[in-house]
Amino acid sequence: MPTSNIPALAAMVNKLAQRSTLSAAEAQALLDLPHRLIKADPGNYLVRNGDRTDSCIVLLSGFVYRSKIAGNGARQIVSIHLSGDLVGLQNSFLDVADHNVQALNHVEVALIPHQAIFDVTEAFPAIAQALWRDTAVDGSMFREWLLNVGRRDARQRVAHLLCELALRQEAAGLSESPSYILPMTQEQIGDATGLTAVHVNRTVQRMRSEGLINAGKGSVTITDWERLQRVGDFCRAYLHLPATAA
User: Fold this and answer.
1) Mean pLDDT of 189-209
2) What is the pTM for the complete model shown?
3) Is the distance from CB of 132 to CB of 92 less than 8 angstroms?
4) What is the DSSP letter of 214?
């Protein structure tokens, strides 16, 4: 949670600075962006498909997910986001949102007006490059998620998701190896991996029996990181984290 002596947007600046070089003036310009703070409970919508938005979401605490809904009502979760992530930056340029954004657990977000984003990127080209790079990494992650759902088996899909969430949380300073936050139900894991909740349950139980993980309520402990990566066909390259991160 942001505190009185830590700027609300500090996590966003820290994340951008992992992949882009920002001067003190550029970092301060980001910290000074006008924003409105809101809180949301699990399941609450922050953006609905078809909405016309006027703000970019910066996640300050908690987890949110983006999803698409098929004509038959089936849901596909297409990404998970955590503290420091910019969610919906693309909506600055698109007329309407083409997907939903919902809270996975209790979250706090900052809403930055689109015009403020335009103004700061015009004044500071390095910030524009940092945001561009951030959206490029989002694209890289989307491609990996597409591969995960389309070409990996159930055990690989779940293992890959667990590896990604663990590495991203460690890089963001949210959790420490070997235990990580997992604020997802088996149904939500299934919606992220194209599996039923029953199939996810069987897969998790198998991974537990193999000594790969211990899963508890709201958390997971990875007991064999190297083997879990092999099982999940996981390579961190698509996350484009600096070599020193996690």
Assistant:
1) 98
2) 0.94
3) no
4) E
